[in-house]
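Let us begin with a simple case.
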Amino acid sequence: MVGLYLAAAIIGVPLVAYFAIAGEGDEMDTDVDLDVDGALDAGGLLHSISLATGAFFTAFFGVGGLAIGAVGAGTLVTLLMAIVIGAIAAGIQMALWRFVRSSSQSSEVGATELAGRPAEVVMPIGPGRRGRISLVAGGQRLYVSAEALDEDVANGMLEKGQAVVVVTVERGVATVSRLDAELA
């Protein structure tokens, strides 16, 4: 079991450090996209767990398991306490991030403001595969998940650095189309 706790700590602690330094929590496309059978997904719980929340659980589960195991607790007690510590840490992270989001002023750019704007592909977009685009709107650089119109990816991928135009944005995902070089 020590190996499990050590692996969780090694994976989780750097991720927690990243989220703490980057200031990202649940807002930046960190939602885990899981295809889970409805019977296994307790009321959509797994669909609402972000990568940041998972990182906090993993880090505190690992560190808590190592600490409790070091004081000589039994295997089952150590496992249960590590799970409780991880769950409490994840819950606190979610609550704090919701508080920060609700109390901060929004400078979000609306989806309608993005339509028609030129952008650049920063992660390739392919048939049935989302990528990311970068664009400037509202005086700030934005990175948005994107998918391409079917006719634009029928003959291959939209590669990194390629100019595109935002057609629509729905549920945080931009639909883009190739942008002719003379228009870019």
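The second case is a distinct protein. As before, the sequence precedes its structure tokens.
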Amino acid sequence: MDNANTWSTLRELRRAAPLVHSITNYVAMDVTANALLAIGASPAMVHAIEEVEEFVAISSALVVNIGTLSPTWVDSMTRAARHANALGKPWVLDPVGSGATSYRTLVSRELARLHPTVLRGNASEILAVAGGEARTKGVDSVHGSEQALGVARELAAELGCVVAVTGEVDVVSDGARVLRVENGHPMMTKVTALGCAATALTGAFLAVQPDPLLASAQALGVLGLCGEIAARAADGPGSLRWRLLDALYNLDEAAVLRGLRIRE
């Protein structure tokens, strides 16, 4: 994995400033929108069913996050995903908390069958989407990413998408290839919605990187690297949060070439 390729993708992202249509949860809206702005993309947090198709049409990528789902939101997510497919727009599904309740798990599986470009979740969520009996601790994983690798590869092949399993080491697969992303910092788990931000950044990278496997790994690597940079001066989760946004905004070529750790 060539770090120069990631820098090239990030530079193009900042030049293009892609519009990323995010149907996401109430908890994640603020940090997700600000992370997208900081990295150089343009966020749109739009979920009304009356306008999702129009926004998909003018956006470069769609992000669907079921964190605070409700039937009306699920209808909007379904319509937006189908329209993205019809228009050939990339879209990312984040099955937040899949495995926690039967409704949440059912919705995750139904949306996954709409063939997202990338399915990103923690290990327990991915195992639940795949049909296993995995349970989450609320929205937190009780499994490690490597435990889900085999299932992730099978699910990616079945759905024809990339599956990104985040954890201490992120694993990303398209069913054939596997990349591991080793960037990140333990304090990031103490800031809510950074996983949701990872999904949103994946959408931004998909807008400019035609290989979904590379786009996923690059987005996760950049966020993890910025988490490491932010943690160096952070006193705790509160300061990590704003320092992470600054790190996304200020990330330069030297830091990417020196610090990114994505392995085949």
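Residues 137-141 have pLDDT under 50 and may be disordered. Residues 212-231 form the longest helix (20 residues).
Keep these points in mind for the review questions at the end of the chapter.
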